Amino acid sequence: MKMKGKKALKVIGILVASIILLVVLFLMYAALKPAVPGNYETKVQTGGEIEAKYLAHGSYEVKYTEQTAMQNYKKYEIYYPAELETSESKYPVIVVNNGTGVKGSKAKTMFQHFASWGFIVIGNEEEYSWNGFSGDMSLQYLLRANNNAESIFYQKIDTDNIGAVGHSQGGVGAFNSVTNAKHMDLYKTVVAESPAHLNLAIDLEWDYDISELHIPFLMVAGTEKSDAELVCTLDGMHKLFDLAADAPFKVMARRTGAAHGDMLCNADGYVTAWFMWQLQGDQYAAQAFTGNAPEIMSNPLYQDQKIDAK
Length: 310
Description:
globular, nine-stranded mixed beta sheet, alpha/beta, 12 helices, 9 strands, Rossmann fold
């Protein structure tokens, strides 16, 4: 009987060890798996011509460089148009603020997408981006590179056209970057994808004050439960929209059927169009948000759209 009992315990031990191994392997896979699908530019559905144009990959060949960073940032990750290395032009900048669990290395496709449209895109590996400090440090790195004759970015940064973007916690970080950071006055526009609404942010101690926002902003979220009932509720969006009373131009919309994580890429057609308009003066892209019939207002894939222009 004792031998049988020992054998049973051994089998149970092997089963437990196997389960633990599977859990460890799953966590390793989840940590390495990209948060943004590699093929989203061709897979995400669009509901308008402008959205479709800017969801597609842009015309610029893209290159990548990185620089070791101190503290929790680990490294600055920069994607840029390849022509920058030989061109005399200056390029607009998009600073990415990380969402929870979505470091720059897990969103490579999104960085590449923006860069293919002519932007210098910078991010890092920070996991606690809500206060906007890591985004500000990313921008500071580029500004110093702009003044460093040995850098490929020497005199290539268009300091008049800098924007911030962030998803979830990163949306809060983007708001703080442009309202409560050292270089906040350099930002021309900001995009928040499913930002944590104010009550949730208070519970998480992610303080931010959107009433201090004085630049144009775009805010998008999904209608599935993860956003609609938790992270970025419709009431929460309306409250943020109204509190940003001094923003000269503001747009909000919800992507129908999209979950919280989907918003990292599902709204990218309009996010790119927004930056093309705001930072490159693209008037075709502007038609997604301006004029008598802004495309986003009639797009069947969106609802609860709202535009306010002063």
